[in-house]
Design goal:
Layout: H1 3-9, E1 22-24, H2 29-42, E2 46-48, H3 55-65, E3 81-85, E4 93-97, H4 99-113, E5 118-122, H5 129-141, E6 145-147, H6 150-154, E7 167-172, H7 174-181, H8 184-190, E8 195-198, H9 205-213, E9 218-224, E10 229-233, H10 236-240, E11 248-249, E12 253-257, E13 262-267, E14 284-292, E15 298-303, E16 308-310, E17 313-315, H11 317-325, E18 334-340, E19 344-352, E20 375-379, H12 392-399
Parallel strand pairs: 1-2, 2-3, 5-6, 5-7, 7-8, 8-9, 19-20
Antiparallel strand pairs: 3-4, 9-10, 10-11, 12-13, 13-14, 14-15, 16-17, 18-19
Helix pairs in contact: 4-5
Length: 400
């Protein structure tokens, strides 16, 4: 597939002979889709932007867009589509993709789940790779994309899923799944999907157990902007049989672990570099830690750079967050290392002020003493980005 073929799939019959750079900066899905189609026609570099960015992210983005691209001596690379990543935890980066990387990701998805036509209800923002690739799967396979508002869905307005048009898919972040599970009618609606993907953050054991009791077709997954979304996914039938983790790699991806447990990814959906640079065609070394269980399912243990070092001892924030969630006192929780003059860092637990903090602290006795939070910080406004991920950089700032 080339760019002209992608234009055809988007309903465009020709590509402009005079390419130019175009920024797609739309919030409403219908307007985003139309703007992206026009950008493909322009034939130049397409930059996706997030309308919800603040001043700092916008300045970083504008500075990147104005940079001239570095020349590339590999003719097979185009890298014309720049998808933003970062912002909530660091500087904005623009991962370079094109029709080849997107096509590889879609075909790998179809092969993994055994489908030929993909229909999707779109809840996640199209400016982010999870929302964008949910749409691209429908474009490449001739399926139907139905954008929907999360607020409307949470309020009980659920779209009907037409039968006879192929399988339907949905992507959620863990907190969205948690809220829908509280509504029996919403849970019944979720059972109508071929798979409900859960990603964008770690899912805690109680959430998985609740999903299993509700007989939901959950598919926990792993991927990132640099890999054109998921490269590992647990199939719903595997989840229903009791398997855990993120599942096995999709056909187009290869996953390896180094001696420290860091995850690296190889395959045709890998990005071509961060704008304006290029990267070599080699495996992508992530900052995520993981391991494989005896069934070959990948378990993501957290980010290497998120580890807390307190008094020379290592603490995995995900382990502490899971213990706090198990108390039942917190709907949202984030564990972060904050500077301390004596210990270097101490473990701090952040939670929405509206949620309260009534829980039985002895329930954390199974954790080693150095892993138990030394500070509990109530946050008046829980900071999230457009994908629903907690803004840990903002929480860290609040603690200083």
């Amino acid at each position: 597939m080339d760019r002209a073929e992608l234009a055809r799939l988007l309903g465009i019959t020709s590509v402009d002979a005079k390419p130019r750079a175009v920024v797609v900066d739309e919030c409403e899905p219908e307007r985003f889709i139309a703007a992206f189609a026009k950008a493909v026609v322009a034939g130049g570099t397409v930059f996706l932007a997030d309308p919800e960015w603040g001043k700092t992210e916008r300045e970083q983005f504008n500075a990147l867009v104005t940079q001239s691209p570095v020349s590339c001596d590999v003719s097979s690379k185009s890298g014309w589509l720049c998808i933003p990543t970062g912002g909530s935890s660091g500087a904005i980066k623009l991962a370079r993709h094109d029709e080849a990387t997107l096509s590889a990701a879609v075909h790998g998805f179809c092969g993994h789940f055994g489908v030929r036509r993909v229909n999707a209800v779109g809840l996640l923002p199209l400016q982010h790779v999870s929302g964008f690739m949910a749409w691209m799967r429908t474009v490449f396979t001739g399926g139907r994309y139905l954008p929907w508002s999360w607020k409307a869905l949470e309020a009980g307005e659920r779209p009907a899923l037409p039968t006879g048009e192929g399988d339907w898919f949905l992507s959620l972040v863990p907190t969205q799944l948690q809220r829908l599970l509280a509504d029996p009618e919403a849970a019944d609606w979720l059972r109508g999907f071929r798979a409900v993907f859960v990603g964008g953050g770690p899912a805690w054991p109680e959430l998985m157990e609740a999903g299993a009791r509700a007989r939901l077709p959950l598919a926990f997954s792993y991927g990132m902007t640099e890999t054109a979304a998921m490269v590992v996914a647990l199939k719903p039938e595997e989840f229903s049989s009791g398997e855990l983790g993120c599942g096995s790699p999709l056909p187009h991806a290869r996953i390896a672990l180094d001696a420290d447990g860091r995850i690296s990814v190889a395959g045709a959906s890998l990005f071509h570099g961060y704008w304006p640079e290029w990267r070599a065609d080699e495996p992508w070394a992530t900052e995520d830690l993981g391991n494989f269980d005896e069934r070959g399912s990948l378990h993501v243990l957290g980010r290497f750079d998120a580890l807390i070092i307190t008094g020379g001892k290592k603490v995995d924030p995900a382990e502490v967050e899971a213990a706090l969630r198990a108390t039942g006192a917190f709907d949202d929780i984030a564990v972060i290392g904050v500077p301390d003059p004596e210990w270097g860092e101490v473990v701090a637990a952040f939670y929405p002020a509206s949620a309260g903090q009534e829980f039985n602290r002895p329930m954390l006795d199974h954790l080693a003493a150095h892993k138990r939070p030394k500070r509990y910080i109530a946050v008046p406004v829980w900071p999230r980005n457009a994908q629903g991920k907690v803004n840990r950089a903002e929480l860290r700032r609040l603690a200083l």
